[in-house]
Amino acid sequence: MSAKSGKPFSNKSLVIAHLGALLCVLMWAISFVSTKMLLNEEMQPVEIYIYRFTLAYLLIVLVKRERWLCSTWMDEGLMLLCGLLAGSIYFLAENFALTYTLTSNVSLLTSTSPLITAMIIGFWYRSERPGKGMIAGSLVAFIGVGCVIFNSSFALEINPLGDMLAILASFSWAFYSIILRKLSARYSVWFLTRKTFFYGVITALPFLLVETPRFTFIEAVTNRVVLSNVVFLGLGASLVAYLLWGETVKKLGAVKANNYMYLQPIFTMAVSVLFLHEALTFVGCLGCAMILLGLWLGDYLTRRYSTSTK
Fold first, then answer.
1. Can you give the C-alpha Rg of the chain in angstroms?
2. How far apart are CA 16 and CA 22, in angstroms?
3. Burial class of residue 12, CB neighbours in 10 A (0-12, 13-18, 19+)
4. Closest-CA residue to 172 (of 194, 196, 191)
5. What is the pTM of this model?
6. Cβ–Cβ < 8 Å for 39, 211
7. Is 148's pLDDT higher than 70?
């Protein structure tokens, strides 16, 4: 249902929203490989984040000109919160977590955002309170996520600091999706995305005082690997993906949209097999099947319960 008009979305519009969610998750999965390539070029985590979000912000300003401030200072504060949650807090927590614990730990813990979103939103919006079918499907999909993440190894090393940072990133994205749902009723997706990028960059700048950038602007644009990956991260994984995600949350709701995040390990595994030549095991294939089963099960049980109660 449209937040602005109160009218239901057409079937075609909903199909486009689902496809948009898939494309977002695909680009975010590829962004792991792209970010890894930049780290191999000795770029700093904060440096990578600021380059990609600054590029995305400049592009959106050039393409779409809208007003600069929100209607109220309360909304402006919520925009600042979106920049913190979906920008500096999420990406910096995730990147720094990788320096303290295993990648498998970080991937597993950040993939809990759909479950966290479902739990939090149940307290805020009665209309999107998750039912037993959605919870059951989410749990099956989450088990599948664990199988995919431990595709190559079942070793799990626990480092409290790294794991806490990964959990922080997961909570950050969940709260962002909920606030985004609230703001999307009053502002366009373009406006919301531009403000998120702006405040995301501003709130990350203080970290440069601690972490010295590796590349100057001239060095970055003349390095083919750095330039190509920063352009993808800024244009694709940031600008296009965030615009699509804003529309997806508006049309599908925060809970259903975030369930697509369970597909990210599948896409990441596929990209790793194709480009990093990592092994594909039975456990990985089983995990992919369980993720797809969980997504289908949640939707099927929800629709069946809704039909039976009419």
1. 19
2. 10
3. exposed
4. 196
5. 0.75
6. no
7. no
